[in-house]
Specification:
The structure is a homodimer of 436-residue chains.
Chain A (H helix, E strand, L loop, with lengths): L4 H9 L6 H13 L4 H14 L3 H13 L14 E5 L8 H9 L5 E5 L9 H5 L11 H11 L1 E5 L6 H13 L5 H13 L5 E8 L8 H17 L3 E8 L7 E3 H12 L5 H18 L4 H10 L2 H12 L5 H4 L9 E6 L4 E6 L1 H13 L13 E4 L6 E2 L4 E7 L2 H12 L2 E4 L9 E6 L4
Amino acid sequence: MAYTAVELIELKRDRQTLPPDGIEWFIDAYTKGSIPDYQMSAMAMAIVFNGLDPDELAAWTSAMIASGDTLDFSAIPAPKVDKHSTGGVGDKISIPLAPLVAACGVAVPMMSGRGLGHTGGTLDKLESIPGFEPRIDQARFGEILRDHLVVLAGQSDTMVPADRKLYALRDATGTVASIPLISSSIMSKKLSEGLDGLVLDVKTGSGAFMDELEESRELARTMVEIGAKSGVETVALITSMDQPLGREVGNANEIRESVEVLRGAGPADVTELTLALAEVMLELAKVEGGRERLEEAVASGAALQKLKDVAAAHGGDVSVLDDTSLLEVADREAVITAPEGGFVTRCDALTIGLAATRLGAGRERKEDDIDRGVGITLSAKIGDEVTKGDPLAVVRFNDEGKWEGQRDKLASAWSISPDAPGSRALVLERIDSAQI
Amino acid sequence: MAYTAVELIELKRDRQTLPPDGIEWFIDAYTKGSIPDYQMSAMAMAIVFNGLDPDELAAWTSAMIASGDTLDFSAIPAPKVDKHSTGGVGDKISIPLAPLVAACGVAVPMMSGRGLGHTGGTLDKLESIPGFEPRIDQARFGEILRDHLVVLAGQSDTMVPADRKLYALRDATGTVASIPLISSSIMSKKLSEGLDGLVLDVKTGSGAFMDELEESRELARTMVEIGAKSGVETVALITSMDQPLGREVGNANEIRESVEVLRGAGPADVTELTLALAEVMLELAKVEGGRERLEEAVASGAALQKLKDVAAAHGGDVSVLDDTSLLEVADREAVITAPEGGFVTRCDALTIGLAATRLGAGRERKEDDIDRGVGITLSAKIGDEVTKGDPLAVVRFNDEGKWEGQRDKLASAWSISPDAPGSRALVLERIDSAQI
C-alpha cells in the first residue's frame, strides 16, 4: 500500500472509509512530523463532520497507542482495572475510589490529569498533600503498583505522544468537539495502561463537557465499543453533573472531602458514586463481594490506610490525611447567602466551577499556577430548603480583587423557588458491551 | 471587535455566519503569518463542508484582494475588460481573443497562468514565440497596455499573496474542491486588475475541472455574484469541454492555431468561442458593433497585427507569427488511426490532455519543464465520419519511450460507432447578474 496524506484526507472528506493501514501510516507519520500539522488539522476537521466508523475508530485508537510506550504489569498477578471520568466540578472521585478498590485486591494503575477551564484535576488536588509527587518514572510506577496495588500518577511523556500532539492541535483548530476524536484520545491513554477492565464515568449536565444526555450516551457507547474491540472490557456509567459533586470544590478542599468519604462520613452523592464505580471495578476484576466488601473496606479503615500508603509512596506527608485541618487554606473567607427563602432548585456546576477557577483554584490557561487553598464549600445544594440569609456557600480566597469580580457570578449559581424540585438520579444509566 | 482564530473556525464549523471584519482579520493575519497554516486548513475544510454565503464570500474575496497590490489603469481612458477560463484541453482562446478585442478599442490587461495536470497554460503557449517574456513589472505592464491596449502577462508576485499561499495549502490538504474557495481564488486575482467588466468561460465536461453541468452552473453563478457585489459587471458563459477545443493541443501547436483564427481560417469551434466571448467583452465595455465589428477586425488583419504588436512588446520574435512553420516542432511523428469505420462519438478531452502532458507538452508537477514542440493534431473529432485506417490524430514527440507509454491511452480517447452522434452546443448557457 502507498497512500498520500491528501488522498486520505479526501477519502474522509468524501465520507469514504479510511483503510486501517492508511490510518496507521497517517498517525505514525504525524507523530514523527512527516505529516505536518496543517494536514492533520484538515483531517481532524473532516472527522468533525464525517466521523469515524467503529472499525476506523479502533484502527485510529490502536495507531495512537502504538505511537508510544505501553505499560505491561503482567508480573503483578492482581487484575488491573482503572476508571476515567470525562470531568466535572467537585469530581474528586478518583481519590477515594482508587485506594478503596485496591483495598479489595484489585490493582489500579491510575493516570490522571491537570485541571483546565472550569474543572479541576486529580493531580492538582493530590499535590495539596505536601510532598506528593505524581511525576514518577515507569520503574517507580511499577514498584508502587506492586507494593500497594494502587498508583496515582501523571501520564508519562513517552506514552501516546500522538495524543499529546493532536490534542494541542485540536485545541487550536476548533476540532475538539468530535465524539470519535474525544473517544480515541481518552481510550488511547487508558488502553496503554495494560488493563483488564475499565470503568468510565461519563458526565452529563451543565458542568460536564457535554450537557445533552443523548450526546453523553453516544460518547459512552463509542468508548465502550473501542474498549470491546481492543479486548479490554469497558463499562460506562452516565452520571449527573448539573450541580457539583459533594460539598467541596477546590484542591485542598477536595482532599478533605475524599478523606471523609474513606472515613465513612462523606456526603451522600460522593459516597454513592464512589461505591457505584467501585462495584463495577470489582465486577470487571472478577473480584467477589460487591458493595458489602467495599463498605467493609471503608468501615475497617483499610481503604483510608491504602490512601495513606499510596500517598506516602508518592512522597506525600500523610499527617494531613490524619488531620485534614492541616491542609492549606486561603486567608480570607466570604459567605454567599440566600436572597430569599425556599427550595434550592439549581446549584449550577459550570458557574461554580468557573468561579473557583477564577479565584485561583484552577487554570484558565495551561501555564497558569493554581492556589491550592482556594475553595468553595457548598452549604446548600439542589433540594435543600433555606430561609433568607442562610449561607449557600462559604468561599476561601486570597485575592480580594478576584473575589470582587466573582461574587455576583458565583451568587447567580443558585435558584430558589417556593416549590421543591423533582429529584434526578445521580447514576442515570449503565452502558456495557452487551448493549453495543 | 476582537476574534480569535479558533472562534472564527468554530463559527464556520457550526454553520454560523462569519462577520466581515472577522474575515478581514483572518485573511490578513494568515497572509502575515500570525495565523498558522494549520488554522487556515481547518477553516478551509470547514468551508468545504459549510460553504460561504454571498456576503461572506464578498468579504473573503475583498480580503484576499486587500492582501496585496492592485492595479489602477484609470489613466488609460479605454474601458478595461478581461476574460478568465476555468481551463480545458486545447483552450488557446486567450491568445486570439485578447488582441481581437483590443483591436476594437477595449483595453485587455490579461494575466494568465501556467499549465498543470491535463490542461495547458497560456503563458507556456506564448513562450513558444522565441523571446516572449510574460514576467514584466507593473510599470512595463502599464506601458504595454497603454501603447497596445493589450498585455499578456503572468500574475505579479505582489498581487493577491493570500491566494498564492492559500492555493498551495489547499492543494496539500484536500480543500481544493470547494466552489466558494475556487470562486474567491479566481475572482480575487481578476478583481485586482482594476477592471470595468469580466467574462468567464466556465467549462463543463470530461476535460473540465467540473464535469457536471449543475456544478459548473453553481460555480458560474457564484463568481458572477462576487463580481456584482464588487461592482465589476461579470458575465459567464458555460461552454462544453467534452472534446478538446480546435484541432491543436500543445504549446507551439496552439500558437499556430491561434494565428489561423486571427487570419479567419481557424477551426469552427475555436473561432465561434472566441467571437462569443469577444462579443460579451464588447458589451461589457459598452463598445458598439458586436460580431460584425469583430469579424471586420479579423478580415482587415487588425486583430492579427495586434497579436504581433503585443508579442513584440513582450520581446517576442514575431516572424513565427508571419510564418508559423518556423515554430518549434518535435522530431518524431506518429499517427493514431481509426480501428474501424463509422462516426466519431467520443474524442475525450481529459485523455488527450493527459497524453499531451505526459509526452512533455504539460506539467505533472509545478517544477517540471515542458517541451514546446510536443503536440497532438486531431484529425477526427466528434461527429466526423471515418473509414478504417483513417488518421484520428497526428502526434509529434521527442521521447520514444514516453510515446510507447502513451500510445494506447491516447488511442482510447476515441469511440467510433455506426450511428452519428447528436450534436451538443459549444456555448451552453449565459449567466449574468440579472439572473442572480
